[in-house]
Amino acid sequence: MGFCILLLIAGNETTTNLLGNLLNLLADLPELWQRLRDDRSLVEPVIEETLRYASPVQRLFRVAARDVEVSGQSITQGDRITLFYGAANRDPEAFPEPDAFQLDRDLRNHVAFGSGIHYCLGAPLARVETKITLNVFLDRFPVLTRGTVPAERQTTSYIIFGFDRLPLALKAA
After folding, report:
1. Per-residue pLDDT reduced to its tens digit, 7-18
2. Entry pTM
3. Fewer CB in 10 Å around end: N or C, the chain?
4. Which residue, 44, 165, 49, 29, is CA-closest to 105?
5. Where are the alpha helices (DSSP H) in 28-163?
């Protein structure tokens, strides 16, 4: 039961924040919104770049399973550690010009969904939900702009990167 609750909550909140982060970016990039409407082959790359650029999960906590050294730093079995996925996705050695939103980069190595045995079980579902939702918005709304009040980032969790409020204006066809 606990595992099912974890999947439901984790999948809901992270996908919601992925969609919010994506629409927030697109509200400031009207030319990209139009390109997406005209060329749906760009939908998946824009989702992947959003995952890298504005990862809904910024960090997670772990306990070291064994002694290890990482970049000259000793970590002892049992140490509590924090993995900063958001920072890893902005590493200039992995992603040239990491602070630029670019659809033409190699995105196979972003860690928005973790990696290895800790890779997110719901990653394929999150991608499909986001793809379907974005395509519906693109079909229905020729124009996406900011709302009349400012957006507010959530600040209650250091783990999640998303919004408490994201007012947007969508013009119907």
Report:
1. 776 677 889 999
2. 0.90
3. N
4. 49
5. 30-38, 43-53, 85-88, 123-140
Which position has the token pair 């693109």? 138
Side-chain-side CA neighbours of 171 within 13 Å: the count stands at 9
Q: Which two tokens stand for residue 59?
A: 């960090």
Query: Would you call 123 helix, strand, or coil by DSSP?
Result: helix
Measured distance CA(74)–CA(68) in Å, rounded: 6
- Cα dihedral angle (92, 96, 102, 103), rounded to 10 degrees? -110
How far CA 46 is from CA of 18, 62, 140, in Å, comes to: 11, 30, 18
Residue 114 pLDDT: 86
Residue 163 has pLDDT above 80, yes or no: yes
109/21 Cα distance (integer angstroms): 20
CA angle 65, 71, 75 (to 5 degrees): 30
Domains of the chain, each with CATH number or no CATH: 2-171 (1.10.630.10)
**Partners of 83 in the β-ladder:** 60
Joined tokens for residue 145: 């702009």
